[in-house]
Structures are given as C-alpha cells and as structure tokens.
C-alpha cells in the first residue's frame, strides 16, 4: 500500500484535476504541484477565476453557447450574419470553428447527438429550439457541422427531416482529404467521402 505524502486538501485537488479531460492521475499530480509552486501567480488567480465563472457563466437560451450573458455575445453580435446558423454538437465545436475564423455566422449547440443505445433521443437535444428559430423566419441557411460519426450523421438526417417543410437551405460540412493530408495515410471512409464530395476544377 502506497504511503500518503500529502495532506487531504492536496489529495482532493489532485483528484479534482484528474477529472478534467486530458488529465490522468499522473498529469493531475504534476499540475497540482505546479499550481502549488506558483501559488501567487497561478493558484490565487485561478481560484478567483473559477469562483467568478461558477457565479456568472450561464447557457444561452437562444443558441446553447456558454457565456456570462444571456443571450450570449455571439447572438447579440450585429456584425455576424444572423441569417446563417452553424449547427454543432457541443460548445467545444463552436469554439473550434471560431478559432478557424472561417465564417462569421450564428450558431446553435445541440448538446450531443442522437444515440438510442445511450438513451439519447430528440427530446434530450436542442433540436426543437433550432426548429423554432428557423420557424421565426429570417434564416436562409443551416450548416450542419456535426461529426462524421454514425450518431452525427443520424442526427443530421433527423434535423434535415424536421426542417424539410421550412424555406431554408440546408448544407453540411464537406468530409474528405484534410489540408496537407497524404492519400496513403488516410482511412477508407475518409477517401470514400472525399471521392463522393469531389468538386469541379
């Protein structure tokens, strides 16, 4: 049995850090030690930031993004093309698309994908609120930016069916060869998708 070398407070810090995605027990120990060594520069400000986030962060009632205001900054940004909505599975996908800065549109966060095996149905996702947004009018295009998984594609088909009676253009992200990718290293599914989504030069 391993001997305890720290007090319960530090052990609790390590256990909580280990629950953060991407951090296992060993990484959590290193992170905790780094925070302890940099108490003034990191631990104090981090503690304050976590407290503020806990008190102020909320989910946008319109799009499902997380922010300190409701509606969120994206929904209230007049410089964005609010007539185009990019539908994503999770907030992390929204953030990834924003980092790419490829399009200045609005978003809608589903909160996951349809997965009958996991008990996730249409009522568990923000699909009805998306249909309501489109029904209000003023939306000319829905871009389905869901993952190229079985669940993602099933969700995309379900949403397409729900929006089929509304006057809106529905598109999806192209799937295929990534920029800088070499054909020899790509899997069969990616190559098949790339061939099907081929474009005229």
Briefly say what this structure is.
This protein is an alpha/beta fold and 201 residues long. It has helices at 8-17, 25-37, 39-56, 73-76, 91-100, 127-135, 150-163, 188-196; strands at 58-59, 66-67, 81-88, 105-109, 141-144, 169-172.
Describe the structure in your own words:
The protein has 2 domains: 8-56, RecR Domain 1 (Helicase, Ruva Protein, domain 3, Orthogonal Bundle); 66-172, Dna Topoisomerase Vi A Subunit, Chain: A, domain 2, CATH 3.40.1360. The longest helix is centred in the N-terminal third of the chain and has 18 residues, at 39-56. It has helices spanning 8-17, 25-37, 39-56, 73-76, 91-100, 127-135, 150-163, 188-196, and strands at 58-59, 66-67, 81-88, 105-109, 141-144, 169-172. With 201 residues, it is α/β, with parallel strands linked by helices. The chain has 8 helices and 6 strands.
């Amino acid at each position: 049995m391993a001997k305890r070398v720290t007090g319960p407070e530090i052990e609790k810090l390590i256990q909580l850090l280990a629950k953060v995605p991407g951090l296992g027990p060993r990484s959590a120990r290193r992170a905790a030690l780094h925070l302890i060594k940099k108490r003034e520069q990191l631990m104090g400000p981090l503690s304050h930031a976590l407290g503020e986030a806990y008190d102020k962060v909320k989910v946008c009632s319109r799009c499902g993004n997380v922010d300190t205001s409701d509606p969120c900054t994206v929904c209230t940004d007049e410089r964005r093309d609010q007539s185009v909505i990019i539908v994503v599975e999770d907030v992390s996908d929204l953030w990834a698309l924003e980092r790419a800065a490829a399009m200045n549109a609005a978003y809608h966060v589903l909160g996951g994908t349809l997965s009958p095996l996991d008990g996730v149905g249409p009522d568990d996702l923000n699909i009805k609120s998306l249909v309501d947004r489109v029904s209000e009018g003023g939306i000319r295009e829905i871009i389905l930016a869901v993952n190229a998984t079985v669940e993602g594609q099933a969700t995309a088909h379900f949403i397409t069916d729900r929006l089929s009676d509304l006057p809106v253009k529905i598109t999806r992200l192209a799937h295929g060869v990534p920029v800088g990718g070499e054909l020899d290293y790509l899997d069969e599914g990616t190559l098949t998708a790339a061939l099907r989504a081929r474009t005229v030069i």
